[in-house]
Specification:
Largest sheet: 3 strands, antiparallel
Radius of gyration: 15 Å
CATH architecture: 2-Layer Sandwich
Order of helices and strands: EHEE
Helix content: 10-25%
Structural class: alpha+beta
Number of helices: 1
């Protein structure tokens, strides 16, 4: 079994459709520039309200990705 070293970044994903989509949006956007994403952790959920209805969901997530050999 390989031992891994992980680096962690914190992001906020948004969506007007729901919490799951907000997480997916954060993961998809991050995966454009971050390789080897292995896990995520949801830290908090919040949103904006307009006229008594949810306008947008905002989800703070930590993403963990493996550090490749030779990276600092």
């Amino acid at each position: 079994m390989d031992n891994h070293v992980y680096k962690i970044v914190e992001l906020v994903g948004t969506s007007d459709q729901g919490v799951g989509e907000a997480v997916e949006n954060a993961l998809q956007r991050a995966s454009r520039t971050i390789k080897n994403i292995r896990w995520f952790e949801t830290l908090n959920i919040r949103g904006s309200v307009e006229n008594g209805k949810v306008k947008q969901f905002q989800v703070t997530v930590k993403l963990g990705f493996t550090v490749e050999d030779g990276e600092d």
